[in-house]
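Design a sequence for this backbone.
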C-alpha cells in the first residue's frame, strides 16, 4: 500500500528505519517514538492509522496500539482499540480491557472472585496458550484479597491454580505477607516455603540454563526467604533458620545484604555472637539504625561493659556518612535543568523559574511504582528535615500513570497516606517534541530524583531508591547540602 509521507517521515528510509521482514515494528520505529520530533511522531501515527485498515490479525492491532501509546497519540490508540475489540470480541484486547476496567477495580474479595469467574468463562486460559501469566497475575491479586479478608483457605486455593512456576517466587509473596500481617503464620509459612523453594530452583540452575524467567524468579528469593526464616526465628528455630540462610548464600552470595537481618538474629539465637555482631555493625553502618538495641546487647555481651560504646557508635555513623558521600559522587553532573511549568493538585501552576534561588529536589514517581511508594516515608523524613529551610523545595512529579482517572487516583493516594508533598502532574507535552517532563530529564526508570541548585543546574541525578528511612534522610541531606555549595567547575 503506497502512502504519501510528510517530509518529517521521509527520513525513515534515509536512516534505515523502513519496515523490513522479520523486524519487530515497535523496535523498528524506536528512533522516532524515543527521539523524534512531534512532526515525525504525528506523521508516523498518520501512516500507521492508514496501514491499520489492512490489518487481519489482532497482534497487528496490538503492536500498533502500543506504538500509538509510545508516540503519545492516546486518541488514535483508543480508536484502534475500539476497532480491534469489535473485530475480535473474544480476543486478548477485550480480555485485557475486562481485567483492567472490571476485574482489578472490584473492591471486595467476593466481587473480585465473581469477576474472575466471568473472566475465565469468557476467555478460557486454554485458548490463550503462552499467556498463562496474565491469569496468574489475576489469581495473585484474588488470593491477596482473600488473605486480607481473613479467608486463608480461599487465598491458598487460588494460588494453587497458578500455572507458571517461575512466577510463584513473586506471586505467592504478597498473599503470604498479607497473612503474616494478620498474624496467620500457620497459613503463611507453607506459601513462603513454596515461593522460596521455587525461586531457589531457578537460582541453582546452571548458568547456561538461566533465561529471563529464571532471573525474574530469583528476584523474589530474598524476600520470601527473609519472611520464612523470620517465622522460624520467631518460633525459636534458629538452627533450622541458619541452615536455610547458609544454603541460600552458598548459591546466591549476592543476597547477603537482603538476608542480613534474619541472618544476625539466627546467629544470635545459636550463640554465634561475634558473627552476629559483625553483621550488625555493617547494617548499622549502612543506616539501619533500628538494630541498635541488638547492637548494644551484643556489644555488652562481647566486651563485658558499655564503656566506649558511644565512641564506637559515632565511628559507625562517620563511616556511613563517608559511604554516602562516596556514593553521591557517582551521581554528580552539571547541566541546565529543562524549564517546566506544571499543575499541582490544586490546579495551580508551578514553574522551575519561580523557584530560582532555591535548591529543588525533583522526585519522579507513579502510584503503581512500588519502589517509589516504599521510598516515600524516607522522602517525607528528608522533607521534614528541611521544612523550615526556605532555600529548599521538594517537588514530587507524578508521571507515567496508566489509568485515565489518574488525577483522582493520585489525590486519593496522597490524602490516604497524609503525605505533605507538593505534587505536580507530568502531563504537559512539549509543543515541538511531544515529550513530557520525565523524557526531557532523560528518565528511563522510576523513582528518579534530581537535585537542582539555586542557578537551575542539575547537580545530582539518581534512579531507584532504598526503603530505609534513615538512609534516605541522610543521603538527601548530603545531596542537598552539596548542591547548596558553589559548583567546582
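Sequence:
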Amino acid at each position: 500500500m503506497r502512502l504519501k509521507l510528510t517530509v518529517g517521515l521521509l527520513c525513515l528510509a534515509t536512516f534505515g528505519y523502513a519496515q523490513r521482514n522479520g523486524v519487530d515494528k515497535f523496535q523498528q520505529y524506536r528512533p522516532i517514538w524515543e527521539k523524534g520530533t512531534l512532526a515525525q511522531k504525528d506523521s508516523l501515527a498518520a501512516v500507521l492509522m492508514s496501514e491499520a485498515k489492512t490489518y487481519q490479525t489482532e497482534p497487528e492491532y496490538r503492536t500498533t496500539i502500543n506504538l500509538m501509546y509510545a508516540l503519545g497519540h492516546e486518541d488514535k490508540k483508543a480508536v484502534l482499540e475500539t476497532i480491534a475489540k469489535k473485530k475480535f470480541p473474544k480476543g486478548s484486547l477485550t480480555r485485557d480491557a475486562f481485567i483492567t476496567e472490571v476485574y482489578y477495580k472490584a473492591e471486595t474479595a467476593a466481587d473480585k472472585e465473581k469477576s474472575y469467574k466471568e473472566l475465565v468463562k469468557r476467555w478460557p486460559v486454554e485458548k490463550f496458550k503462552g499467556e498463562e501469566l496474565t491469569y496468574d497475575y489475576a489469581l495473585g491479586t484474588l488470593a491477596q484479597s482473600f488473605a486480607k479478608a481473613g479467608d486463608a483457605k480461599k487465598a491458598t486455593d487460588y494460588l494453587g491454580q497458578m500455572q507458571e512456576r517461575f512466577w510463584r517466587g513473586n506471586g505467592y509473596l504478597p498473599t503470604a505477607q498479607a497473612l503474616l500481617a494478620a498474624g496467620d503464620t500457620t497459613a503463611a509459612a507453607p506459601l513462603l516455603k513454596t515461593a522460596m523453594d521455587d525461586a531457589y530452583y531457578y537460582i541453582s540452575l546452571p548458568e547456561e540454563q538461566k533465561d529471563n524467567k529464571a532471573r525474574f524468579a530469583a528476584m523474589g528469593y530474598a524476600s520470601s526467604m527473609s519472611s520464612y526464616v523470620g517465622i522460624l526465628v520467631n518460633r525459636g528455630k534458629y538452627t533450622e533458620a541458619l541452615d536455610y540462610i547458609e544454603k541460600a548464600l552458598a548459591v546466591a552470595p549476592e543476597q547477603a545484604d537482603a538476608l542480613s537481618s534474619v541472618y544476625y538474629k539466627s546467629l544470635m539465637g545459636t550463640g554465634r555472637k561475634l558473627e552476629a555482631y559483625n553483621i550488625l555493625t555493617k547494617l548499622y553502618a549502612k543506616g539501619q539504625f533500628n538494630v541498635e538495641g541488638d547492637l548494644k546487647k551484643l556489644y555488652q555481651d562481647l566486651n563485658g561493659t558499655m564503656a566506649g560504646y558511644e565512641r564506637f557508635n559515632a565511628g559507625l555513623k562517620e563511616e556511613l556518612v563517608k559511604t554516602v558521600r562516596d556514593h553521591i559522587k557517582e551521581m554528580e553532573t552539571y547541566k541546565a535543568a529543562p524549564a517546566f511549568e506544571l499543575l499541582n493538585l490544586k490546579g495551580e501552576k508551578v514553574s522551575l523559574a519561580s523557584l530560582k534561588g532555591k535548591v529543588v529536589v525533583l522526585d519522579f514517581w507513579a502510584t503503581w511504582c512500588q519502589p517509589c511508594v516504599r521510598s516515600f516515608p524516607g522522602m517525607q523524613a528528608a522533607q521534614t528535615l528541611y521544612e523550615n529551610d526556605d532555600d529548599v523545595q521538594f517537588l514530587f512529579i507524578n508521571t507515567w500513570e496508566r489509568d485515565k482517572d489518574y488525577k483522582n487516583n493520585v489525590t486519593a493516594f496522597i490524602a490516604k497516606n497524609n503525605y505533605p508533598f507538593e505534587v505536580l502532574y507530568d502531563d504537559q507535552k512539549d509543543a515541538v517534541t511531544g515529550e513530557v517532563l520525565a523524557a526531557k530529564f532523560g528518565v528511563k526508570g522510576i523513582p528518579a530524583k534530581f537535585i537542582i541548585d539555586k542557578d537551575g543546574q542539575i547537580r545530582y541525578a539518581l534512579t531507584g531508591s532504598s526503603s530505609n528511612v534513615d538512609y534516605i534522610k541522610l543521603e538527601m541531606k548530603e545531596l542537598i547540602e552539596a548542591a547548596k555549595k558553589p559548583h567546582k567547575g
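Residues 309-329 form the longest helix (21 residues).
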